[in-house]
Amino acid sequence: MRLWNGWGNENSELLMELNSGLRNLLQMLVGPATPLGEATLEQVMAKVPASRAPAHPLISTDPEIRVRHARGQSLPDWLAMHSGDVDSFPDAVALPENSEQVRELLRYARDNNIDVIPYGGGTSVVGHINPEISPRPILTIDMSTMNKLLHFDRESQLATFGAGTPGPEVEAQLQKEGYTLGHFPQSWELSTVGGWVASRSSGQQSLHYGRIENMFAGGSIETLAGTLDIPTIPASSAGPDIREMILGSEGRMGIITEVVVRVTKLPEKESFQVVFFPSWEVGLQAARELIQQRIALSMVRLSNPLETTSLLYMGAGDDSSGVVALETALAEKGIGAGKVMMTFGVTGSARHCDMAKEMALDHCTGLGGLADQVGLGDNWAHGRFRAPYLRDPLGSAGYAVDTMETAVDWSTLPQAVENIESAIRNGLADEDEQVHAYTHLSHVYGQGSSIYTTYLFRLGDSYRQAMGRWHKLKAAGANQIVASGGTISHQHGVGRDHRDYLVAEKGELGLAAINSLCQLFDPESQMNPGKLLPDELN
């Protein structure tokens, strides 16, 4: 059973408690915090109003299922659920088992003037699945029962999945055939293949496997105007690519029911290596040159000095002696204060992996890098999906953690990182509150890189105060992203939290074009209203 107000499953082995080392570090960085009370599921269920949805055999109006589909996994969602301050719920939830049932549900919605929210894994961190307060009834269509491998074309390396198939099931079903999709976003355990397409997701090893737009070969989308089938053509010059209309559409045009993806054979070998560099500038040079020289890596992740130190001590737990010993050994070799940590991966045949790793290490050591010899790369791989589990123990201790991400060109990246971090770090100066912010590059390209900034702060005396602090920090970081010429989202999508920043990237004419597509498929704006487009177009 999924946690109703947090990340993960109730019995997950990844659920954690805040160790004393991390607690002490937070007290030093942002100050001692006071835990806040926590609403119970029963208290939130008591707020669920009577359903406005007409009866239908495919829907449920049970209060608990409506609560469990009321919010995603953003920090505002977490604050709402834990405080009990939830002001909107779906009127009904449906779990269709096939495309015909989705079509039936859309006919029901059209005939009864009902808003529709597609729901994949519920992992959205920008408000994709949240019901907007509406005079119309709201139906959430949960795709989780459409979770099977439907067809596998081994010769063409194409696999067709029900859109509600979560990451582990995608991999388990493919690996039985000796193949992999290789799409590993941090939400991989819970997010779905349809959600990846709808939000233009990016996996941790996209250098090797590609982003979801490289994997998405075709599929089926049920809309209020009819069924849109996208054939799996290897390449085409026949006008605009219809796939691009659906990628990142966030449910505004319809519900993705089947997804055809390009898969590859399971790699013979895979490994991850950590390298330390004496400075952020040298680390940036190494990351840029590795990708621009086309060394065949599967990922490159570079942590700036603050993140490097933070991660080392956070991972140390109650005993930091190992970190102290590591820092002493690095300092003896000229890598002291200001050091940064790079993690790179190699994936493929044994021969390819060995050659690529050797080339990468030669390049890194030529720039003054020092390769880790104690298995930090293996540690990263083992804990690669743990980060979302940290929010709950931090919250229980009175702290909040959130992230912002973008992508910019290499020429503007150093200043952009500095400006975004500084804006967030000083975002609560009017309250004399400290904010701890640090950054890593998670996906690199020949042209530029993503920027992923994590920030921690105290919740304060109430959930209302915590929400006010989040709004300040979100605006501070987002405004600096726009000022730096970056995208408002590299991998999390737009949802409701980013919609009003979209004009900086798309322009007025571009937004009008996107809106015209939405109106074509959904003239009454019933499909996931309030998401993707700015307020004036919703």
From TrEMBL:
The active site is at Y452. Its cofactor is FAD. Keywords: FAD, Flavoprotein. Substrate binds at R391. The keyword Hydrolase does not apply. The record marks R301 as: Important for enzyme activity. The keyword Flavoprotein applies. Residues 86-266 form the FAD-binding PCMH-type domain. One of its GO terms (molecular function) is FAD binding. FAD binds at P118, Y119, G120, G121, G122, T123, S124, E250, G251, R252, M253, G254, I255, I256. Belongs to the FAD-binding oxidoreductase/transferase type 4 family. This is FAD-binding PCMH-type domain-containing protein.
